[in-house]
Amino acid sequence: MRRVPLLTRSVLKEVLRWYAAGIALFMILQMADALSSTVANLISYRAPLEKAAFAFLSILPSFLNKALVLAVAFAILLAFSRMQQDSELKAISAGGIRPLNLVWPLALPFAVVGALAFFNADRLVPAGLDIWQNRAWYDIYGQGPPAPSQDTYTYAPAGALYYAGRVTNDAGGRVAQLQGVMVQRGDETITASSGTWDTGKRTWTLQNAWIVRPGQNPVQQLRPLVIPQGDTLAPPVRDSRELVTSELRRALGSDRLDATQRREYTFQLATRYADPLTAIVFALAAGVLGLLIRSRAAAFASVVVFIALFYVLWTTAPGLARAGAMDPTLAAWLPNMVFLGLAGVLAWRLR
């Protein structure tokens, strides 16, 4: 009765050994890719070692989450191929133990990996991406981060329409800069290339504005034109990847998101739960597939195909979700559903 637990521990030891190597491999590959795409800027701006190190440390949590998942298939397929090559799986079958009994225990350690991936994705990844995209590189360039901005602002109270192509506001300031302005009030249309928005005085002040009225020629105002505007200046919508899960939920409960942003936020929220569970799904799918592999070469080929299929689904689904071609929640869970289906088909074959 003790042979199954002992065997399970032996298999887990073999898999976890390969898993550690897989995490190291995928971290190195991702870091090499990031470094190759940024080394020219680091050299051009003569970035000090501490600033370059700070930038790359900020992106490490994002790389870690990918490595935690991708290394699962790498570890299990190579571990099982080694056991197949040494006839260990044949000996196990000859001993009356069903091969599938080696797969189910793999879900437990990778459930722990999934919990770690969830914490990392919820806390460390958003903070790291915020530093990488909004602070670290501007420090290397010797520039301050740009002021928060919002594109295509629209406000439509009764009988009027206020539009600005871009609203730029210094953090914490009550005055914002406007670009590409159009205001419609009754039969009057006002356009200007620039202006300011004073939220304290609740006014828009437009420079060199043009006023168009029906049956009249356009008239340019040589003096600043002050227009009442009662809307409030809200902070711009942030990149969904830079928000923790609770912030994503609050944003989805507000009415500030347009349709595209709402789909993107919904997709990002769903991935916070779907991606960590991918480690468990990969463990089951790769475990069943590994029992069918007969050589080390086939194992390496399976790793490539496995990861390539996941990568295609993982990179295609966000675009489908943002475009509205697929429900965002379904798109986030699509890779897991496909590989869980694959695990079921292969397990049926091995039953």
TrEMBL record:
Q: What does the UniProt entry say about where the protein is found?
A: Cell membrane
Please name one Pfam family that this protein belongs to. Answer: LptF_LptG
Task: State whether keyword Cell membrane applies.
Answer: yes
The annotated topology with respect to the bilayer is: Multi-pass membrane protein
- Which parts pass through the membrane? 15-32, 52-80, 100-119, 273-292, 299-317, 329-348
**Assigned keywords, A-Z:** Cell membrane, Membrane, Transmembrane, Transmembrane helix
PANTHER family per UniProt: SLR0882 PROTEIN-RELATED (PTHR33529), YJGP_YJGQ FAMILY PERMEASE (PTHR33529:SF6)
Please identify the protein, giving its name as recorded. LptF/LptG family permease
